[in-house]
Design brief:
The protein is α+β, with helices and mostly antiparallel strands. It has 4 helices and 10 strands, in the order βαββββββαβββαα. The strands form 3 sheets. It has a 4-stranded mixed sheet, covered by helices on one side.
């Protein structure tokens, strides 16, 4: 299960507010990274979405743990180091799919209100989702309740495996 993920944005607070609505979460500053915000789901799942300024990137820490724990929202030298020395990307191969209590129309409205592409899609006739293009750069697939139900019924090794192991479309 996904515990949390991070995503870069030109406007971290605004993007985080959208995620807060999608996951029914509380939105607050994320002091681990200057300028970052986090949405934490209220349902007890522990799901969090960290929204970093677009130039903030992860770097490997150095050395190994000496057993000391950071006191507060800080990282130790051997842990990931997040610095504002990256550059904005226009596209990425990364995406995430998350579920929401919101219906497709509500999810689309969140994106459209910010000028983002948001489109309701049917994936292979087995589940539906909304492609929500965060700041028109990063893909987040948001599954509304019925889409999530259909997704969970489909995305098992047995069921999805039958579709994925078959011949490619148009082949035969």
């Amino acid at each position: 299960m996904i515990a949390h993920f991070s995503i870069p944005a030109a406007d971290p607070k605004s993007v985080c507010e959208v995620f807060g609505a999608i996951i029914d979460g509380i939105v607050m500053p994320f002091p681990v990274v200057e300028g970052a915000w986090v949405a934490i789901a209220r349902d007890g799942s522990g799901l969090g979405v960290e929204v970093f300024p677009q130039a903030a990137v992860h770097h490997q820490g150095e050395g190994v743990s000496d057993g000391t724990a950071a006191q507060g929202p800080f990282v130790m030298p051997w842990e990931t180091q997040i610095r504002h020395d990256g550059s904005a990307q226009s596209a990425s191969g990364f995406h995430v799919a998350i579920t929401s209590k919101l219906d497709a129309e509500q999810i689309i409205a969140l994106g459209e209100a910010r000028g983002w592409r948001a489109v309701h899609c049917e994936r292979g006739g087995v589940f539906d989702l909304v492609e929500l293009w965060i700041e028109n750069r990063a893909l987040v697939e948001v599954l509304p309740p019925k889409g999530a139900e259909r997704y969970h019924a489909f995305y098992t090794p047995e069921v999805a495996g039958k579709m994925f192991a078959g011949p490619p479309p148009g082949a035969v």
